[in-house]
Design goal:
Elements: E1 21-26, E2 29-34, H1 39-45, E3 71-72, E4 91-93, H2 97-112, H3 128-135, E5 186-188, H4 198-207, E6 213-215, E7 222-224, H5 242-246, E8 252-254, H6 255-260, E9 265-270, E10 279-285, E11 288-294, H7 307-311, E12 326-327, E13 336-337, H8 340-358, E14 363-367, H9 373-387, E15 392-394, H10 395-410, E16 428-432, H11 436-439, H12 441-452, E17 456-460, E18 469-470, E19 473-474, E20 477-479, H13 486-499, H14 505-511, H15 514-525, H16 531-538, H17 542-554, E21 558-562, H18 564-567, H19 572-585, E22 595-598, H20 605-610, E23 617-618, E24 622-623, H21 627-637, H22 649-658, E25 663-667, H23 671-674, H24 678-687, E26 690-695, E27 707-710, E28 719-722, E29 727-731, H25 743-758, H26 768-778, H27 787-793, E30 795-797, E31 841-846, E32 871-874, H28 876-882, E33 889-894, E34 898-905, E35 913-917, E36 945-951, H29 957-969
Parallel strand pairs: 1-4, 14-15, 14-25, 16-17, 16-21, 17-20, 21-22, 25-26, 26-27, 31-35, 32-34
Antiparallel strand pairs: 1-2, 3-4, 5-8, 6-7, 9-10, 10-11, 12-13, 12-27, 18-19, 23-24, 28-29, 29-30, 31-36, 32-35, 33-34, 33-36
Domain 2Fe-2S ferredoxin-type: 20-98
InterPro entries: 2Fe-2S_ferredoxin-like_sf (IPR036010), 2Fe-2S_ferredoxin-type (IPR001041), 4Fe4S_Fe-S-bd (IPR017896), 4Fe4S_Fe_S_CS (IPR017900), Asp_de-COase-like_dom_sf (IPR009010), Formate_Dh-H_N (IPR041924), Formate_DH_asu (IPR006478), MoPterin_dinucl-bd_dom (IPR006657)
Family: In the C-terminal section; belongs to the prokaryotic molybdopterin-containing oxidoreductase family. Belongs to the complex I 75 kDa subunit family.
């Protein structure tokens, strides 16, 4: 297989520019670069590395270290090359005797206030100060030890120095500050700081948190993470790692590097957390992972990261991880560890026996958005080709299936329209039902940067998320709607745009169906859809809504970003279509800076949908009823495909309770914690006779499993993920699977165990690349994708085929995939979930930055220091009415169930609304949620549940019973001697 072609990975000193070409000479070499390029970067382009400390190509030039001085013919002095732009005909000298002398003197000053412990320093071999000392030829320094920041006991001052001396009896050096090790992942050692400002600038320019600053002047200058009493853990720092990556010394250093040592090799791979799809260099020492460093050439993250992707990888070696297959006959029995052959034979016999007894449609599969495209493809193939039915579903349907349906109906394709880079050209950012700073933090940083540059922001959310107001940004409009009224709000926005003539008529006439628009315009123009008429229903101020509509329609390039707060409703599909209507109304499609962009919650939600994980669709979103599509797969697979759609997850559970669905293979998905109405899920699982869980840990679903097949982490597999911008990224094996097999191999082994017993031909895949070849051969949007292309280009965005050999960053540029854009009537239909005297509040759910989904991975890392339990956010008014104080135990009850958790009193939520996360199984927030779902896709209505909150003394009886059952179900017999 073709090796990864790594682009030029040098630090070029300053960011790249675009502009007219400028030609100059540097040390006699002619170079042509874009206008605005720094002299430092121009020199790097011809292979001349100018020494630097404060400069790095991920940050704007700063010009403070004075190590990068050069001489320019015809100019006085020695300007800093990082802050000096090129000019036509400029002649630069980077190695003259004069600049060499200056650089050596500057470096001497740095070294004079720096501990010379290089041999024992954790950054030895990976320290820019050390490298630059060598680059300028510093072999000695003339300054005697004196007042300094690094000697804990104090130093002896040079003769004649009048500053206060530190005697042996003194308490120590007042300038010395010990290292701050409060953050679980990195330490801050002020004694090694050279005050280059790179960490502060990274926090500002890259992350946008503004948690760090330089306090003091001159010799008293220090990096500060807040007040004098604050440490890094108590500060506003979000542990994204940007400061650590920017630091040129060991001042900010990963604790893993301190403990393990400097890495000596790296593998470029893709993060397995959210749908941003960040690229990382997994830096290794032998086969041990030392650190994850965001890859500067990653097109989704552009060298940035968040606390999860950067640091929360320790779960891969957690003691809870199961590495050996296990089986049992009944769920009340303890697990027995067995070999792979015995486990697979047991599973295959059980599943085939169920089909023989109950029929071929009595078993099914569930796959996960945490798995690769190749693994997901094989799981749906297992259902269709080996099981002989279409009983295949995925967590992607449980979160974003309304995106597929809604955008498919309006635009003709089931995915977002832009790449992430597009946000750099937007003028109005419209965020609805998403919390990017917590759910998609790396993209949120890019979004915040654009807002600081002057873009305007509209937020539609029941909760005051951080984007509404945080450091240096504030939303122009926040519309805190009542949960469940998305459709009414979106239609009211369209009402304003149409009735006030703010639509882009030229775009509508040329790109959309004009007759359908006429019908739609008549619908939204009805006075019942006006902001004033809907205000009582939605809770949104009519004037604020009108102002937001005006801003989106007339503010320039408008881009819409939405998340699960849109899709996880009974009218999720209707809201998605309403959002598409808004974009078409205003002509905000088909160019950079605009579009409709779903923010996918998990790393491969898009890919799981693409790969045909739904019971009614084969790969590429083609319905199983289409004979020509079935024939293509049948010819390739050598088996017939059922033309009837199979069962979705809730249908599987219903049929299990009814006694007709008996067996399940569940790969990487924990439906007992992540799916709604926990009691119903438990009842369905308990009614099944063979549940196979294929995962890393004994998750909640495994409480009801009969077979456990150990899975592999993203660090142990090859394959691809497809992120929220349709970008197909390579996942590369960093270490060998600890269980012996990658997940695709386990699925193939199970398939072959069943095929062998049935006397049918077995699968013969030898590598995920072979699976991708089959995907490309059967899925039009992937037709041009192979691993060789991905190794060459790094990543591509589908559609990638003959018409688009390099992929498609922007969709619908000249026309929609369906031809003409389709306006669809979006009638508001209230959810059946109603508040009332027993349940007067509305519960909505979401995520938090430090934890991920059901927490199976992040709960097994140091991230728990920031979020050790789910809490219930409740408005002060509602708390006072119920006698609830901060930190009290409260019972949260709905028509479906009840649980107890601690209260957090906050005005982030409106009166009448409460909010919690779902990261911890001891809370099991989904025991509260109902079985109501989206009318088109069955996507659960997680975001609207009528509840009551009352004081409590601790966990409910149900929680205690659940914990006892879980402990009983997780017993493992000791291995035989």
């Amino acid at each position: 297989m073709k090796d990864l072609i790594i682009p030029d990975d040098r630090d070029m000193g300053t960011p790249a520019k675009t502009g007219e070409p400028v030609t100059l000479t540097i040390d006699g070499f002619e170079v042509t670069v874009p206008e605005g390029t720094s002299v430092m970067r121009a020199a790097a382009e011809v292979g001349i590395q100018v020494p630097k400390l404060c400069a790095t190509d991920s940050l704007d030039a700063f010009g403070s270290c004075r190590l990068c001085v050069v001489e320019i013919e015809g100019r006085r002095g020695t300007p800093a090359s990082c802050t000096t732009p090129v000019a036509p005909g400029m002649a630069v000298h980077t190695q003259s005797k004069k600049v060499r002398k200056i650089r050596t003197g500057v470096m001497e000053l740095y070294i004079s206030d720096h501990p010379l412990d290089c041999l024992t320093c954790s950054a030895n071999g990976d320290c820019e100060l050390q490298d630059m000392a060598g680059a300028v030829g510093l072999r000695d320094q003339r300054y005697e030890a004196g007042r300094n920041h690094y000697d804990a006991k104090g130093g002896t001052l040079a003769q004649g120095d009048t500053r206060a001396r530190v005697s042996e009896g003194d308490k120590g050096n007042p300038e010395y500050i010990p290292a701050d090790t409060s953050n679980p992942y990195f330490s801050y050692d002020p004694s090694k700081c050279i005050v280059c400002n790179r960490c502060v600038r990274a926090c500002e320019e890259v992350q946008g948190t503004f948690a760090l600053t330089i306090e003091g002047r001159g010799f008293e200058s220090r990096v500060s993470a807040g007040t004098a009493e604050d440490d890094f853990l108590a500060s506003d720092c979000v542990s994204c790692g940007a400061c650590v990556q920017a630091c040129p010394t060991a001042t900010l250093q990963e604790k893993s590097v301190i403990e393990i040592g400097t890495p000596n090799r790296s593998v470029v791979t893709t993060c397995a957390y959210c749908g941003v799809g960040c690229s990382f260099k997994a830096e290794m020492q032998g086969d041990e992972l030392v650190r994850m460093v965001p890859y500067k050439h990653g097109k989704a993250n552009r060298g940035h990261s968040c606390v999860k992707g950067r640091f929360a990888y320790g779960y891969a070696h957690h003691s809870d991880r199961i590495l050996n297959p296990m089986i049992r006959d009944r769920v009340d029995e303890p697990w027995r560890e067995v070999g792979w052959d015995e486990a697979l034979d047991f599973a295959a016999s059980k599943m085939l026996g169920l089909q023989e007894t109950y029929g071929k449609k009595s078993i099914g599969v569930i796959t996960s958005s945490r798995c690769t495209n190749e693994e997901t493809y094989l799981v749906q193939k297992l259902a269709r080709s080996v099981f002989g039915n279409n009983n295949t579903d995925t967590c992607a349907r449980v979160c974003h299936s309304p995106t597929g349906y809604g955008l498919g109906q309006t635009f003709g394709t089931s995915a977002g329209t832009q790449d992430f880079d597009s946000v750099e050209d937007t003028d109005v950012i419209f965020v609805i039902g998403a919390n990017p700073t917590d759910g998609h933090p790396v993209f949120a940083s890019r979004m915040k940067k654009r807002l600081r540059q002057g873009a305007k922001l509209i937020v539609i959310d029941p909760r005051r998320i951080d984007l509404v107001r945080s450091a240096h940004i504030e939303a122009a409009h926040h519309l805190p709607l009542r949960p469940g009224t998305n459709v009414a709000v979106v239609t009211a926005l369209a009402h304003v745009i149409v009735t006030e003539g703010l639509m882009d008529e030229d775009f509508i006439r040329s790109r959309c169906d004009w007759e359908e628009f006429q019908e739609y315009a008549a619908f939204v123009s009805d006075p019942r859809h006006s902001p004033e008429a809907t205000a009582l229903l939605t809770g949104v101020d009519p004037q604020a809504l009108r102002a937001a509509a005006h801003l989106y329609a007339t503010g320039g390039n408008g881009s819409i970003y939405y998340g699960l707060g849109v899709t996880e409703h009974s009218q999720g599909s209707t809201t998605v279509m309403g959002i598409a209507n808004l974009a078409m109304l205003t002509g905000n499609l088909g160019r950079r800076g605009v579009g409709v962009n779903p923010l996918r919650g998990q790393n491969n939600v898009q890919g799981a949908c693409d790969m045909g994980s739904f019971p009614h669709e084969l790969p590429g979103y083609r319905h199983v009823k289409n004979a020509d599509v079935r024939e293509m797969f049948e010819a390739l697979w050598g088996t017939e495909i059922d033309p009837e759609p199979g069962l979705r997850i809730p249908n599987m559970l219903d049929c299990a309770v009814d006694g007709t669905f008996k067996g399940l293979y569940c790969q990487g998905e924990d439906i007992l914690q992540s799916d709604p109405d926990t009691k119903h899920v438990a009842a369905g699982l308990a009614a099944m006779e063979c549940v196979i869980v294929h995962d890393l840990f004994l998750n909640e679903t495994a409480n009801y499993a009969h077979v456990f097949l150990p899975g592999s982490t993203f660090l142990e597999k090859d394959g691809t993920f497809t992120n929220a911008e349709r970008r197909i990224n390579r996942v590369r094996e960093v270490m060998k699977p600890l269980n012996g097999y990658a997940d695709w191999e386990v699925t193939q082994l199970l398939a072959n165990a069943m095929l062998k017993k049935s006397g049918r031909a077995e699968w013969t895949y030898t590598h995920p690349a072979r699976i991708m070849e089959e995907i490309a051969a059967t899925t039009p949007s992937f037709a041009g994708v192979d691993y060789a292309l991905l190794e060459t280009k790094g990543s591509v965005q589908w559609p990638c085929n003959e018409e688009h050999p390099d992929g498609t960053p922007l969709m619908h540029v000249d026309s929609f995939m369906r031809g003409k854009g389709k306006f669809i009537i979006t009638e508001y239909v209230a959810t059946d979930e109603k508040t009332g005297p027993r349940f007067p509040l509305l519960l909505t759910t979401g995520r938090i930055l430090s934890q991920y989904n059901v927490g199976a991975q992040t709960r097994r890392t140091e991230n728990t220091i920031w979020h050790e339990a789910d809490v219930l956010e409740i408005h002060p008014h509602d708390a006072e009415n119920r006698g609830v104080n901060e930190g009290d135990w409260v019972k949260l009850a709905s028509r479906s169930g009840e649980t107890a958790l601690r209260a957090k009193i906050t005005d982030r939520v409106s009166p009448g609304v409460v909010y919690t996360t779902f990261h911890h199984p001891d809370t099991q927030a989904n025991v509260i949620t109902t079985d109501f779902s989206d009318w088109a896709t069955n996507c659960p209505e997680f975001k609207v549940t009528a509840v009551q909150v009352s004081p409590s003394n601790g966990p409910t009886d149900w929680q205690e019973d659940y914990a006892a059952q879980a402990a009983q179900a997780r017993r493992i017999l000791p291995a035989a001697e």
